Amino acid sequence: MSERTILHVDMDAFFASVEVLDDPRLRGKPVIVGGTPEGRGVVSAASYEARRCGVRSAMSAARAIRLCPDGIFLRPRMERYAEVSGWIFDVFHEITPLVEPLSVDEAFLDVGGCRRLLGDGPTIGRLVKRRLLDEIGLVASAGVAPNKFLAKLASDLEKPDGFVVVDPARVQDFLDPLPVGRMWGVGEKSAAVLEALGIRTLRDLRLADPVRLESRLGAAFTRHVCELAVGRDERPVTTDREARSIGHETTFAEDIGEREALLEVLDQLVHKVARRLRRAGKLARTVQLKARYPDFTTVTRAETLPEPTDRTDALRDAGRRLFDGQLDRRGRPLRLIGISGQNLVDREAEPPSLFPDPDAERSRTLDAIMDRAADRYGGKAITRGLPRRKPGA
User: Fold this and answer.
1) What class is the 171-229 domain?
2) Which residue has the higher pLDDT, 39 or 247?
3) Out of 3.10.620.30, 3.40.50.1110, 3.40.1170.60, 3.50.50.60, which CATH number does the structure's domain 15-78 have?
4) Is position 242 annotated as part of the catalytic site?
5) Distance in angstroms (rounded) separating the CA atoms of residues 51 and 196
6) Contact, 43 vs 33, CB < 8 A?
7) CATH 3.30.1490.100 region(s) of the chain?
8) Which residue among 82, 145, 234, 345 is least crowded, i.e. fewest CB within 10 A of its CB?
9) Global confidence as pTM
């Protein structure tokens, strides 16, 4: 069995970085997202300038103000962060279908199957970071390692804009000097117990008497940390293959009412959904359209297809039928539009048609060409719609 290659990618100060992306005047300033200048609420995210003052996520806004009186406090814009997160995960899915989201700005990628096409793990890791910066304008930290634990540990070591590679042949050299508090799942209380036992580094933990540890930490937790101390983690990357739906949506900076402009955006979203379906080996029985109006009223409309599909043209046609036939806009502009494939089935479980449709076969061939181009050159190489626009473009 070949050595796994896992990337852990974590966007740096994500919410604050999106605010700077949208307002470059904030660059270099202590940006604090969450809470209010009056000291109510908690901090959701802080730029690295604010972190240098001691501000941290989940800290009370009142304390953040005391630590950073010149901080610029901004209310969270969750819809905007979700939109940018969608762009980030588009990049991930264009690299590999094996993507496990951990949050809106963090994921594991299993890139072992991409090495022949894209290069070794470090090369792919640098590619991901470069694409996130070039296409979206955001900086990420990444770790490359043979398993999820090591990759996450590596990505946290040199933030911001970090890039750490764990050599599979030197895992213990990488782990031994690290403090026990760096371990995933070891909180302040557990770290304090370990330090009280004289265990300050992962080397100390690796060499400790397990019986003594069990008496203080319990058998299950002791087994867990002792496995991690030697870099052992067999957990697989969990992907969209288990998903019941695959979709994309976008929130507009300004409400859009023109039909053609909305359909262009819808076509772009369909392209992303279709590509993810194909990469996950899924077919959609149902297409659902989602729309949100300026007053935040949200409506959904769905159509069950004659047969399950992952074809871009079939999904696009269904989306357009829903838009024109069932979405009662009455001339109102939209704030958000989205589309998803639902009631998914495995492609391999569907029997082939006894009477193949030549048009459908041509469409599948075109989809395959587009997918290969996107695999090699990135998602913007060929699209059936508008290219992804950067914020402010």
Assistant:
1) mainly alpha
2) 247
3) 3.40.1170.60
4) no
5) 29
6) yes
7) 240-377
8) 234
9) 0.64
